[in-house]
Amino acid sequence: MLRNRDLTDAPEVLRIRDLVVELTGNTTAPPVLKGISFDIRRGETVCLVGESGSGKSVTSLATMGLLPKGALSVRSGQILLDGQDLLACSARQMKQKRAKNLAMIFQEPMTALNPVMKVGAQIVEVLDLHTDLSASEKRAKVIDIMEQVHLPDVARIFDSYPHQLSGGQRQRIMIAMALILEPALLIADEPTTALDVTTQKQILALIAELQARHGTAVLFITHDMGVVAEIADRVCVMRHGEILETGPIRQVLEAPHHGYTQALLGAVPSLVPRAARVLAEKPPILIAKALGKTYRSGSVFGKKTEIRASHDVNFDLSPGRTLGIVGESGSGKTTVARSIMRLIEPTAGQILLDGDDIAHLSTAAMKPQRRKLQVVFQDPFRSLNPRWTIARSLTEGPLNYGVPYDKAIAEAKRLLRIVSLPEDALKRYPHQFSGGQRQRIAIARAVMLEPEVLVADEAVSALDVSVQAQVLDLLAELQRQTGIAIIFITHDLRVAAQICDEVLVMKRGEVVEQGPAAQVLHDPQHDYTRALIHAAPGRFWDFAARTPLSA
Amino acid sequence: MLSYTIKRVLSVVPILLLVSVFVFLLLRLTPGDPAAIIAGDQATPEQLERIREAMGLNQPILTQYLSWVGGIMRGDFGTSLISNVPVLDLVSQRVMPSVSLAVLTMLITVLLAIPMGVIAAWKHRTWADYLVMSFSVLGFSVPVFLVGYVLLLIFSVKLGWFPPQGYRPLSGGLMPFLDRAILPALTLASIYIALIARMTRAAMLDVLNEDYIRTARAKGVGERRLLFVHALKNAAVPIATIIGAGFALLISGVVVTETIFNIPGIGRLTVDAVLARDYPVIQALILLTAGLYVFVNLLIDLSYPLFDPRIRY
Predict the structure, then answer these.
(1) Candidate from B7, B218, B309 with C-beta closest to A98
(2) Per-residue model confidence as pLDDT tens digits over B94-127
(3) How far is Cα A205 from Cα A231, in angstroms, rounded to an integer?
(4) Rg from Cα positions in chain A
(5) Which residues, at least 6 apart from A82, have a Cβ–Cβ distance to it below 8 Å?
(6) d(CA B25, nearest CA chain A) in Å
(7) Do B308 and A116 touch (CB under 8 A)?
(8) What is the distance between the alpha carbons of residues B196 and B110, in angstroms, rounded to a whole number?
(9) β-strands A185-189, A102-105: how paired?
(10) Whether A429 contacts A388, CB under 8 Å
(11) Long-range CB contacts (within 8 A, 24+) of A246-254
């Protein structure tokens, strides 16, 4: 349900007026923040929502006084916290205010904690810096806040290092650290983006619970409309350093008045599965039979350990169809993909590609088969060689298979047109393109070899929602034209609902449910699938239709 | 951890065996008859034969190697050809000056180089950074003997602060020891400081970009604590690695430095032995330095878990 609380009578905690942030020493370039204004009241959650580069993180860092030195600086404006202008504070005053009056949690719980310090000590450090409590009082206070964030076995976790905890537990530690001194303002910068949906749901609930207990004002930064619908009282929509639209959550979701907000909402994939496609039955191109991968490790002295990364995976995939493999981190979905790609050798079962079993082929015997299997990876910023031109990246595969250069270049040009990039892109390097453009290049690279099967491993997860929609459309279009079979690996049920014909739900290496997408996502049989769907943020709302979903 | 330690200690054995083979072959592969080399130009055929017999040169090469290694196991490194003193006695007399010099050098290096690197990273691209980096380039490119002579000229000859040469053992009191050891240690440390300051700077620059540094700032942690508590411990593993790898520099530096400052240590012994072609001594010294190098790096490898709890053996 939308929170949509009206807190106009509560006192103002944060008041930002005409904040302008520019590139340090560069007055000619347009500012990064072009004079934004908003405020947050006690106990209220305001979501800053926007795509990458919109300036939402810059807003939060400016408020904390943590803009990267020498890169960004505030030109003008006011940031008032409880009536005091933070921009007029000295470095020393700001240092004292951090954690005490305003605190922040970050996106990546995996890297946000110091890996060589015990987590208890990291929370105690906040008290060391800002209070005069005795050692035993500090410990008691830390244990208390760790219990408030519902960490299990608090005494053990107090003495654990970050790498011994899960992502969700680490984010709980971050929240405990941020809230231990009960600051008036909590800034949460994409705090759940790196977490699994079920963990995300718990963390969102936790933030809301602690907010209610302590009356904290929360500035919540996210790109995910589903999360916005879950947690916001009010929303500010940002683009290119400006706030385009602001209002109570219900108003923004039901009657967005700015065109950009409307487009943004329209691009959110629906959780309702698309109608099943009826396609001419063709014999399957790829069949997996009892496929499994078990990692074994051990040493001369230590005991042997076995990790079953995936187990008994069965499916068949026909040309022109899309199979979704859905699961949370550690579910084994990527292991399955890597086995099929034969980037690793499976330890059990068969992979029949066009009738040939490729499960245990040697590197040499695999080579002619590789052309038929191509992959698009998650991170478009790392999957293209930064020192190679696009032409070289695109033609490398065909040249390896003996295609003449002229022909390969001609094909590269044709594909660039299909992925809506100009022909002169060939001469350029990856850093000259945006994330969405790079992912389209990566897709062009994959289909250069005219593969039978395309494996997309979280291929749209790193992209903004509007770009995500374009890339999904592109994949659908390519599939329609070429009849390629796609294995789509994702943690995002919304995306799976929109693109997949069949879905396979994995948990801890096991397939828990499998079937037509419409059936699995609409009427899940397994508890885990139900939990996944239940945890999808904003599942009660149809963003494109701007109405609540009837259950 | 225990099984890893045992494994690592055992892995030292093949390395040292390989070194011993090279050291053994050193004498055998030198052109000409080892006995003739040892006996010198004036030897008679009878003398040569006696030496061959005494060295076991008439036996098969494998037997010779085994009996040589067997001797070493019992602490018998042979006898110096020049002074006729057992090599073991000769070397052990000279170990203390060199070891105390090396330890002092290490101390000076760590105390100077790490703060220098930290400050350079913290003040990245300011004059402080450029100063440290310039010193680093200088330390690398100026030969050790030149540093030694320049220090001598300034602090002993011109200013008269320290005696120019000699050695007093640490057992005779700290101040007399430092009085004579400080200049050689600084000489030896110059290249080492350059190396470690540079490495510390690079490792710190990486760490300072990490998310947890931002988290610490968001908690209100001050700059000094940020640098020396949060960042430095995370940068410690590469720094420790380079301290170990740089130990080879220290060994070669010791030879030159001890000669300049007239310190009766391993380095001087090495120079004397090489010039006199005192093969048994040379062999023992190579084995000793190789063993030391391996041992220091073993200790450093085993110390990683102290810096980073994610490293578990």
Answers:
(1) B218
(2) 888 888 898 899 999 999 999 999 999 999 989 9
(3) 9
(4) 25
(5) A13, A101, A184
(6) 34
(7) yes
(8) 8
(9) parallel
(10) yes
(11) A246/A38, A248/A4, A248/A6, A249/A2, A249/A3, A249/A4, A249/A47, A250/A2, A250/A4, A253/A2, A253/A229, A253/A541, A253/A543, A253/A546, A254/A546, A254/A547
Choose the closest CB to B219 out of A99, A116, A299.
A99
Q: How far is CA A181 from the centre of its chain?
A: 30
DSSP A344: S
Residue type, A114: N
Superfamily name with CATH number, domain B88-307: MetI-like (1.10.3720.10)
Q: How does residue A148 score in pLDDT terms, banded at 50, 70 and 90?
A: very high
The reported pLDDT for the residue numbered B32 is 64
CA A467/CA B137 separation, integer angstroms: 48
Please tell me the pTM assigned to this model: 0.85
CATH topology of domain A1-101+186-270: Rossmann fold (3.40.50)
CA atoms within 13 A of residue B297's CA, in its CB half-sphere: 16
From the candidates A114, A164, A171, which should be mutated to test the interface with B, based on the most B CB atoms within 10 A? A114
Each residue of A241-254: b (16+ CB within 10 Å) or e? bebbbbbbbbebbe
Per-residue pLDDT band for A193 (boundaries 50, 70, 90) equals confident
For residue A234, the SS3 value is: strand
**Token pair for A16:** 């930002």
Give the gyration radius of chain B's Cα atoms: 24
Size of interface A-B (CB pairs under 8 A): 74
With contact defined as beta carbons under 8 Å apart, do B109 and B185 qualify?
no
Pick the closest to residue A191 from A152, A146, A230, A151 (CA basis): A230
The number of CA neighbours under 13 Å toward the Cβ of B65 is: 14
Nearest-by-Cβ selection for A129 from B214, B219, B233? B219
Polymer length of chain A: 551
Q: What is the mean pLDDT of residues A455-461?
A: 89
Does the pLDDT of residue A358 top 70, yes or no? yes
> Residue A301 above 60 pLDDT?
no
CB A541 within 8 A of CB A362: no
B214: left (phi over 0), alpha (psi -120 to 50) or beta: alpha
Chain B residues within an 8 Å CB radius of A106: 211, 214-215
Question: Are β-strands A12-23 and A286-297 bridged in parallel, bridged antiparallel, or unpaired?
Answer: unpaired
CA gap A488, A252 in Å, rounded: 32
ipTM of the complex: 0.81
Q: Which amino acid is at A361?
A: L
Q: Which CATH superfamily hosts domain A286-548?
A: P-loop containing nucleotide triphosphate hydrolases (3.40.50.300)
Token output for A208? 């809301």
A382: tokens are: 């790392």
Cα distance between residue B53 and residue A365, in whole Å: 63
| Segments making up each domain of chain B, as ranges | 2-87, 88-307
Q: Quick one: what percent of chain B has pLDDT higher than 70? A: 96
Q: What is the pLDDT of residue A87?
A: 94
Helix, strand, or coil (residue A506): strand
* pLDDT tens figures, B279-297: 888 889 999 888 888 988 8
For A127, the enclosing helix (H) or strand (E) is helix A119-130
For residues B96 and A364, what is the distance between their CA atoms, to the nearest angstrom? Answer: 60
Residue ranges, comma separated, of all CATH 3.40.50.300 domains in chain A are 1-101+186-270, 286-548
Question: In the structure encoding, which two tokens stand for residue A494, read together?
Answer: 């919304």
3-state secondary structure of A307: strand
Which of A106, A21, A103 minimizes the C-alpha distance to A62?
A: A21
